[in-house]
Design brief:
The chain has one domain. Helices cover 33% and strands 33% of the residues. The protein contains 1 helix and 5 strands; from the N terminus they run βββββα. Strands 1-2-3-4-5 form a 5-stranded antiparallel sheet, with helices on one face. β1 and β2 form a beta hairpin. The protein is flat, with a radius of gyration of 15 Å.
Length: 90
C-alpha cells in the first residue's frame, strides 16, 4: 500500500527488526492522520481523533468488529475528503 486510502497521498512506512524478525511497522499519512501501527502482535488503528488498539488478548470477534469499524470510518473519511476537495475547487 503506497497511497493513503483517505486522501491518496503517499504513505510513510517504517519497519523495525530485531535479530530474529520484524517486530514493528508503521504506516502513516501526515496529511490526514491515517495510521496503522503494528508492534509485537498489537495493532493500533488511527484516523484523526478516532483511535483503537487491538491487543493479542482481544477475542477474534472483537478484533473483527474493530477492523470492520475502522474500514467503515476509512470509507466515510475518504468520501468526506473528496467532498471537501470538490468544494475547494468550485
Amino acid at each position: 500500500m503506497n497511497d493513503c486510502p483517505i486522501c491518496g497521498k503517499n504513505l510513510k512506512t517504517k519497519e523495525w527488526y530485531d535479530e530474529h524478525s520484524l517486530v514493528e511497522w508503521l504506516i502513516q499519512c501526515r496529511d490526514c492522520q491515517y495510521m496503522r501501527h503494528w508492534y509485537y502482535g498489537n495493532l493500533e488503528l488511527t484516523i484523526g481523533l478516532w483511535h483503537k488498539n487491538l491487543y493479542n488478548y482481544n477475542s477474534n470477534k472483537l478484533k473483527d468488529k474493530i477492523i470492520s469499524d475502522f474500514n467503515s470510518i476509512v470509507r466515510k473519511a475518504h468520501r468526506q475528503y473528496l467532498i471537501q476537495k470538490e468544494l475547494k475547487n468550485e
